[in-house]
Amino acid sequence: MLLRCGHSSVNHSSKKYMKPELNSKRVRVLYSFPHKIGASRICYIAWQQVKGLLDAGAEVTVFPGAIHRPLPSAATVQATLARRSGLARPKQLLYSR
């Protein structure tokens, strides 16, 4: 089984990353969310989406801006704007020119 690209000139068989693992029946999902996952409104919806993917049996890797509510332990989580060594990296500093 191969995933399809929109370009017919792409040699699909040469794209190793497009082939699913033969031994794995689980779907792998990379979930990127720029805000504080698990907080109110859209942040809580994102938390519910990750939980739903895990409940459905997917292997989920999450990259949120920060973590407000802990995700289930089955998810691999790496906060991208979390405090490290006492230094916070606010989005305004990262995206300013």
Topology at a glance:
Layout: E1 28-37, H1 42-55, E2 59-67, E3 76-77, H2 91-95
Parallel strand pairs: 1-2, 2-3
Q: Please give the share of residues in helix.
A: 10-25%
Q: Please summarize the sheet with the most strands.
A: 3 strands, parallel
Mean of residue pLDDT values: 75
Query: Which spans of ≥5 residues are poorly predicted at pLDDT below 50?
Result: 1-18
**Outline type:** globular
> How many domains, as an integer?
1
Q: What's the arrangement of strands in the largest beta sheet?
A: 1-2-3
Number of strands: 3
Using only CA atoms, what is the Rg?
A: 17 Å
Quick synopsis:
The protein has 97 residues and is an alpha/beta fold. Helices cover 20% and strands 22% of the residues.
Describe this structure as you would to a colleague.
There is one protein chain. With 97 residues, the chain is of the alpha/beta class. It has one domain (26-95). Helices cover 20% and strands 22% of the residues. The protein has 2 helices and 3 strands. The chain has a 3-stranded parallel sheet with strand order 1-2-3. The longest helix is centred in the middle third of the chain and has 14 residues, at 42-55. Residues 1-18 have low confidence and may be disordered.
